[in-house]
Amino acid sequence: MTATILDGNALSAHLRTELAGRVAALTARGVQPCLAVILVGEDPASAVYVRNKVAGCEKTGMRSIKDVYAPDVDPAVVFARIAELNADPAVHGILVQLPLPRHFDSEAVLEAIAPEKDVDGFHAENIGALMQGNPRFIPCTPYGVMKMLEAGHVPLKGAEAVIVGRSNIVGKPMAMLLLAQSCTVTVCHSQSKDLAFHTRRADILVAAVGKAKMITGDMIKPGATVIDVGINRLPDGKLCGDVDFESAKEVAGLITPVPGGVGPMTITMLLTNTLESAERTLK
Ligand SMILES: NC(=O)C1=CN([C@@H]2O[C@H](COP(=O)(O)OP(=O)(O)OC[C@H]3O[C@@H](n4cnc5c(N)ncnc54)[C@H](OP(=O)(O)O)[C@@H]3O)[C@@H](O)[C@H]2O)C=CC1
Ligand SMILES: Nc1nc(=O)c2c([nH]1)NC[C@@H]1CN(c3ccc(C(=O)N[C@@H](CCC(=O)O)C(=O)O)cc3)C=[N+]21
Ligand SMILES: [Mg+2]
Fold first, then answer.
1. Which residue range or ranges hold the Tetrahydrofolate dehydrogenase/cyclohydrolase catalytic domain (predicted)?
2. Whole-angstrom Cα distance, residue 213 to residue 234?
3. In the CATH scheme, what is the homologous superfamily, with its name and number, of domain 140-263?
4. Euclidean distance between the first and final Cα of the chain, in Å?
5. By CB atoms within 10 Å of each CB, which of 57, 153, 208, 281 scores lowest?
C-alpha cells in the first residue's frame, strides 16, 4: 500500500478559480483587491516566492505592487513606505518578505503594518485574536494546511497531532489551528527528547523544520496523514521537503509532496486573505 497524495497544486487551482470569481464581482463594484509585497535584498529563494505571489495576483485578477530594496537599505525608508501603504485606501494587503537583513528589527517591521492589512497574520494583534479563537487573518501556511486536511477528509476531533517546529510563522499558529479543531496537539523542537517517540504517535504529523528528509518512514504511524511544510534545496538544485518522501509514502495514509504541496497552498491562502481584506472595506 502506498499513500494517497494530497495535491496542493490541484487544490490551489480549484480554490483560485473560486477566488477569481469573487475578485471579478468585487472589482465590478469598484474595489479591485490589491496586495503590496516588500522585498529587501536579493535572496534567490525569496525572489522566487515573491514572483509566485505576484503571478498569483495577476492570474486571479488582483492588483499587486512589488517594491524591491537593496540589502543595505536604511530601515527608515522601508518604515516610511509601510506607512504610505497603510494610508493608501487602494491597498488591501501588505506583506514584508522574511527573512529581513540582520540590521532590521523584524518584529518592529511586522508591528508597523496596519493590522487590518496584515494578510500574513503576523502582527501581534492578529496573533492574539487567533489565540482567542477570533481570527482576523489566519497565517497563510497553517491556513493552507488546514484546507488540505479538509480536502483530504482527515478526521480532526480527538486526533493526535504532532508538529515538528515551533516558529512564529508556521509551528505555533499551526498548533493553535489544530487545537481549535479539537486535536490533541504536541509541539516538538530542537530540544525535544526522542523525536521519533512523538512522531510515531501522530495521526497527523506536520513537519516544519527546514532539514531535508529528516522524517523517515520508520518515524511514521501506519496510515497517518503526513504534511510536509519544509522547503529545502539539495546540492543538485532540486527542492525537497523535511520528509523522506520515498520511505514515508510506504507507511503514511495521506501525504503532501514537495514541491506541489503546502507551498502553492500558502500563496492561495495569501490571495484569499487579500480578497477578504478588500471585501471587508465594503462592509
Ligand atoms: N511551504 C511553505 O509555504 C513554507 C515553507 N517553509 C519552510 O518550512 C521550514 C520551516 O520554516 P520555519 O518555521 O520558518 O523555520 P524556523 O527555522 O523558524 O524553525 C524551525 C523549527 O524547527 C525546529 N528544529 C530544528 N531542528 C530540529 C530537530 N533536529 N528536531 C526537531 N525540531 C527541530 C526548531 O527548533 P528550535 O525552536 O528549538 O530552534 C524550530 O522550532 C523551512 O524549510 C521553510 O523553508 C516556511 C514557511 C512557508
Ligand atoms: N512574510 C512572509 N510570508 C510568507 O508567507 C513567507 C515569507 N515571508 N518568507 C518565506 C516563507 C516561505 N514561503 C513559501 C511560499 C511559497 C512557496 C512555493 O510556492 N513553493 C513551491 C515551489 C517554489 C519553487 O520552485 O522554489 C512548491 O512548494 O511547490 C514556498 C515557500 C512563504 N514564506
Ligand atoms: Mg523562520
1. 6-120
2. 10
3. NAD(P)-binding Rossmann-like Domain (3.40.50.720)
4. 50
5. 153
